[in-house]
């Protein structure tokens, strides 16, 4: 049974219903989350490209937000794991609780969410609130709309000609993808405006386009000889023995018996290729155009091809938090789950903290392609920095060093162990100094240098 790393919800409910409420399950390196929990979590930035982490959300950022969410209590269900903030009053709630408690989420730009008291309304929406329509049916499922509220129904802001259940519209949007149009007026703008009514629209092909063999009948073509004069005594549709029908090599729209191509002469043993007259004329014109047009360098051709790279499967989440910044270059940030950096990790004495690990927003950028060989860099004896027990795990915060850098101390690394791990049964300082860590123990990293920053600042003021 799967459990979301952020909201703690499991997949024990109906799978189709969970998909409409929480989105697809996403799993990578033992991190399992709902896709909507990634998009709607207010404090979770998307700092990577479409191939980094989970669709641009770095695994270390997901872990940090998951740890913080366990300290927040949902306004509606009084359980921890809340990660969605109202952007006005700052109350916090779950993604699932938002749907049933009249909250609004924008599935675009910065993915803002509003509680039931702070949701913004335009003139048309205020009119619907003052005078709710009666005896309306959902134009998708054709069932009655029993309780008309703006958070339970959707409409086309382009034409305002009808209504549909929000859950029905979510199902319609997920199935349509690129091809989503207003079901009432077929306006293309509906694809973007419906995202402001808590409806997620995926940037992908429609589900009916992805079904296996959905258009297999289009590949079944009737073989027929289309020559002006067919020499086959059995007719144009005969395709046996020496009367074999070949399709046009380029368009495959017309065919011909091989004997009808060469007349009644004996066929050669080599394989014949057939091109219809129309394709032959087009091919000749293209060759003439290429000969008459100036030649272009390979470099310009490469640039032209590069401009048509399809990146539509990656949904960009903007961030209004100025403390969360992208790198100066155009390359996306990458996850630190599989890093090849050589890191010397040490630790300093613990002061018996009882709260969760607080990780700074500035994160060390490390490659995401090769495994971290931590066994060579983390060797006893260690120097303990901070130790604590929280949510069923034991944490050690350690300082990281790089001998090649001008400033050897580059930040901190948090190690996490299960409480039943034999290595941490003895939590005395002497035992922790001899602890042997592995790459699986690395929980997250940040560039916080702790007391060393204060020492450097003090030394600089002398």
Strand content: 5-15%
- Counting DSSP E segments of at least 2 residues, the number of strands comes to 15
- Helix and strand succession? HEEHHEEHEEHEEHHHEEHHHEHEEEHEH
User: What's the gyration radius in Å?
Assistant: 31 Å
Count of DSSP H/I helices = 14
Q: How does the major sheet shape up?
A: 5 strands, antiparallel
Q: How far apart, in Å, are the first and last alpha carbons?
A: 59 Å
Walk me through what this model shows.
The protein has 14 helices and 15 strands. With 462 residues, it is an alpha+beta fold. The protein folds into four domains: 15-114, Zinc/RING finger domain, C3HC4 (zinc finger) (Herpes Virus-1), CATH 3.30.40; 123-210, Herpes Virus-1; 227-275, no CATH class; 344-461, no CATH class. The strands form six sheets. Strands 11, 12, 13, 14 and 15 form a five-stranded antiparallel beta sheet that branches. A hairpin with a 2-residue loop joins β1 (25-28) and β2. The two termini are 59 Å apart.
């Amino acid at each position: 049974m799967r459990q979301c790393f952020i909201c703690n919800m499991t997949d024990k409910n109906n799978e189709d219903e969970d998909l409409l409420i929480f989105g697809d399950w996403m799993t990578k390196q033992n991190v399992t989350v709902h896709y909507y929990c990634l998009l709607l979590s207010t404090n979770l930035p998307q700092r990577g490209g479409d191939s980094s982490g989970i669709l641009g959300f770095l695994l270390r950022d997901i872990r940090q937000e998951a740890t913080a969410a366990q300290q927040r209590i949902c306004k509606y269900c009084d359980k921890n794991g809340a990660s969605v903030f109202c952007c006005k009053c700052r109350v916090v709630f779950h993604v699932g609780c938002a749907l049933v408690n009249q909250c609004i989420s924008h599935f675009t730009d910065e993915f803002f969410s509003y509680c039931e008291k702070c949701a913004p309304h335009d003139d048309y929406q205020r009119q619907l609130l003052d005078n709710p329509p009666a005896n309306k049916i959902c134009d998708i499922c054709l069932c009655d709309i029993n309780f008309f509220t703006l958070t339970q129904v959707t409409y086309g802001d382009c034409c305002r000609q009808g209504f549909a259940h929000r859950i029905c519209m979510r199902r319609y949007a997920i199935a349509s993808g690129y091809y989503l149009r207003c079901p009432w007026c077929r306006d293309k703008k509906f694809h973007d405006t419906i995202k402001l009514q808590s409806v997620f629209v995926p940037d992908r092909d429609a589900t009916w386009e992805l079904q296996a063999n959905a258009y297999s009948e289009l590949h079944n073509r009737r073989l027929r000889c289309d020559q002006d004069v067919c020499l086959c005594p059995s007719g144009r549709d005969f395709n046996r023995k020496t009367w074999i029908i070949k399709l046009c090599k380029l368009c495959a729209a017309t065919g011909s018996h091989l004997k009808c191509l060469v007349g009644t002469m004996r066929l050669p043993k080599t394989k014949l290729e057939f091109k219809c007259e129309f394709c032959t004329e087009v091919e000749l014109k293209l060759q003439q155009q290429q000969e008459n047009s100036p030649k272009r360098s390979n470099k310009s051709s490469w640039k032209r091809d590069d401009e048509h790279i399809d990146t539509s499967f990656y949904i960009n989440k903007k961030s209004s938090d100025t403390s969360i910044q992208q790198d100066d270059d155009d390359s996306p940030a990458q996850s630190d789950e599989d890093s090849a950096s050589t890191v010397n990790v040490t630790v300093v004495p613990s002061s018996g903290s009882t709260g969760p690990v607080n990780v700074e927003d500035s994160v060390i950028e490390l490659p995401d392609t090769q495994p971290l060989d931590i066994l060579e860099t983390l060797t006893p004896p260690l120097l303990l920095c901070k130790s604590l027990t929280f949510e069923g795990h034991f944490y050690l915060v350690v300082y990281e060093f790089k001998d090649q850098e001008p400033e050897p101390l580059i930040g901190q690394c948090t190690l996490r162990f299960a409480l039943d791990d034999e290595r941490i049964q003895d939590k005395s300082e002497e035992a922790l100094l001899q602890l042997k860590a592995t790459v699986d123990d690395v929980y997250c990293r940040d560039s916080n240098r702790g007391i060393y920053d204060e020492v450097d600042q003090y030394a600089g003021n002398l």
